[in-house]
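User: Quick sanity check before I run a bigger batch. Here is a single chain. Can you write out its predicted 3D structure?
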Amino acid sequence: MLRFTQDILLSLRAISNEDEAKIMSKGVREQFDFLGVKVIARREITYPIFEKNQPSDGDELVQRVSDMWGQPYREIQYAACDYLFKHKTLLGGQHLNFLKGLIKTRSWRDTVDTLATSVLGDLAWRFPTLRGKIASWIRDPNIWIRRSALIFQMQYRDHTDWPLLQDFCTYCAQDDEFYIRNGIGRALSEYARVNPMEVRRFVLNTQFSPLTAQEVLKHI
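Assistant: Done. Predicted structure follows.
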């Protein structure tokens, strides 16, 4: 374990709460262990450590985040997401597979959505050629990789690659996985804020599940 990670872990352990940890674990179907540190307290503890440990480049950032990701407590992964977000501009196209690995490891909506919309989305925005590689993710057997492909453009607003999003949604239209259908709904609902008529036309002419279509159309 890196000294950086150890400092974060020890600081979080010092304010851990066993009762809160049980509640937080139930919130993710008891898939992960928690220390019981809520978001505001976590950031008050970890941000000063971040400030004292600025990564020199993308590779050092990757090393530190990877080390945090391997720790057992969920708050450490949340801290890793915060640290990665703060320094996301250090990432380059060569780090796409690194992000894919994070998304596939210790996966749940809490970390996946942050990584996909705030880090992967930023990377693909700065390096548009990566979108072609991300396009292959929509056929990945891992549901979190597919979800990431669906939602990575959510902050693009009127700069969304609409044909690409349509292709992704059409490919997954009959997917039975809740988090894929939910991802379709989130992505289309967000784009509908800037292009409601196009989204409405697309939804009405595509065989989505009734619940997915209803969820999108109620926002238009």
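The chain has a mean pLDDT of 97.

User: Great, the batch can go ahead then.
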